[in-house]
Amino acid sequence: MNWTHKYISILFLLLLSCNSSQKANTEISNNDKKIIRHNNIVIVPDLSNRIDDSLYPRQLKDSDIINVTVSLFPDLIKSYNRLSMQKDKISLKLLNPLDVPNFNELEPNVTIDLGAFGTKQFERIDFINNKKDISLKKSIDSFLKTSKTIYDTAKTKGYTADLWGFFNQTLDEYYFTLTNPINSPKAKDTSRNILILLTDGYIEINTQSKQSCPEKKCRLLNYYQIEKFRDELNKDNNQSNAKAFFSKSGYGIVPVQNENLKDVEVLMLEVYDRSKSESGRVTKHPSDFEILQLFWSDFFEKSGVKRYKIVEAVSSEAAIKTVIEKFINEES
Fold first, then answer.
1. Please, what sign has the CA dihedral across residues 248, 251, 254, 260?
2. For residue 45, how many other CB atoms are within 10 A of its CB?
3. Is the pTM of this model over 0.85?
């Protein structure tokens, strides 16, 4: 090899080495990018006839649960070792945003959004520490007062609860958004999407009949569907347990195709067991709650929900606080 060829070979190796080094440095830089998580909690109530205490008496009202949830928000600001620029957010939204005609006017009062302060950290601190007229404490009071107004309106209207439509369409790519998120070469804000769903677990329409859901799998989950499943299970000659029978039965709620669910953690609260007597004794086996749990677990898993928990109606604020705190602290 002459010196010319040798020189070209050395130069080529040096260039290759530089490119490799530059690529490695880029990868290190990308790996060093700080990902900052912020809690984004949305409370969604089912405003159907389940909120009528005369029909479905419960020891806890939705207002109690909303109160407990919002009262936890100040402590959540301290999570993830963030010392500043928190973008945590808590809000109340509707299964069907059109149910309450003036909801757009009410929505700012049922939203607490630390991201609204952007880079103004001193204003954020004053808000959190209740040092100004616009404060976290006053915002919580406004949140609870406005949510009561929404419930009072719902009790006079008789809304339906299209849970299937909510998961299929309402919960879109903009449903959980942070305000003023950072996305720089050094840091990126991400949203931890927590959905707290207050519902009895039934998907019903105003006119119910055996023909409302003639197939084993549909977009409803009503009394007739639950009774039909229970009858078939109890007639099963193989005497399968409820879970094993469900998996082979073909029953279920039609899954949705919604890519946004992969980032959502669902806490379904206040699922109501209509098979219980007034004294709390289960009158049918398996109970309505056990059947609802089978249907909803199957739906969440097949629809690609990131994480979920289904909780039967509880008896005290202390109990519901424990449930909510545990769910938030046990993030995936």
1. negative
2. 26
3. yes
